[in-house]
Amino acid sequence: MTESGFTVETAMVLAEVAHNRQKDKLKRPYREHVLAVGDALADFDDDIRIAGYLHDIAKDTPITKQALLDMGVSERAVAIIERVTRRFQDDSDNDEAVMLHIAQDHDATLVKIACNAHNSVPERVRALAEKWPDKAPTTRYADAREVLYKAVPRGEIHLVLQRINPDLLSEMDRLAD
User: Fold this and answer.
1) CA-CA distance, 82 to 85, in Å (whole number)?
2) Domain 8-176 CATH class label
3) What are the residues facing 23 on neighbouring strands?
4) Res 148 pLDDT > 80
């Protein structure tokens, strides 16, 4: 538990409620994504796990930084959430600049790796390719991983990928060599 009393379990509930009616590009419940990202960070401390569950809350809901702090989310968890939220970046339209900014912070990098890995699950990538056959799956996620994987220890990446997308483990090995 964090010093504030805001727990991982509270973050899970808040993530479910905040994203309850949202759908992803495949019309699946969006809450499945945020819950998967938080779950993938189970081997890390509470602030990282809380940030994982709440990583898209500032992007997709009207909940503000101040509201999170008022609820008792730690400043560290809020800082992680802010760092992984594209709209808070100086050069938010530049994917590489956004990833480099995230990669400057160990904790934010772990959250972004989990998010990226869930968005890169093979079944999801195939479904997106089928839905938009004229628009091949983007290399944006693969390009981001090249930056992110250099920013944290390989063993920590392995812990995340093993939980959320083991298919990326061989890519991690290749990029790490």
Assistant:
1) 5
2) mainly alpha
3) 29
4) yes
